[in-house]
Amino acid sequence: MDRLQIEMNELKTEFREFRKEMRAEIMAIRTHDFRLLFGAIITVAIGVAALMAKGFHWI
Q1: Could you confirm whether the keyword Transmembrane appears in this record (predicted)?
Q2: pLDDT tens digits, residue range 39-56?
């Protein structure tokens, strides 16, 4: 019975470590995705502003 409890505790510990690693991976992916999306939004805004300036003959 003691051996079973020891195995269960080891399994719980491994599962906690796995969850921590997965959370860290997901946070890294989120950071990268945010930077990519933010850069795309800025690029589109600058492009639209340039098209408007060209359309109103400001350029």
Answers
A1: yes
A2: 999 999 999 999 999 999
